[in-house]
Amino acid sequence: HPASMGHGIDGLQANGHIVVWYGLNWSLDLYEQMNARVRRQGQGVPVICHRIMMQDTLDQAQGIALDAKAESQSSLRNAIKEYRQARKL
Prior knowledge:
Blueprint: H1 2-5, H2 12-15, E1 18-21, H3 28-38, E2 48-51, H4 58-88
């Protein structure tokens, strides 16, 4: 479960490189932490993250919500970065 494995377990990058999500959650933090736990330094092969989702179910809404949250978070980070760079001038 991402809540237990996303934070605090090291060594996953040495034991696997494929993440399969068969039940997404609404938390972008848990989703990103779990994927990043496998994509850590020392990973020798490309990491593959699969989402298994059923058509016309809440699975699709969760996937869309996670993608929208990630895009929003990225936009916010970029805006803060641009603001800080402008203040340095």
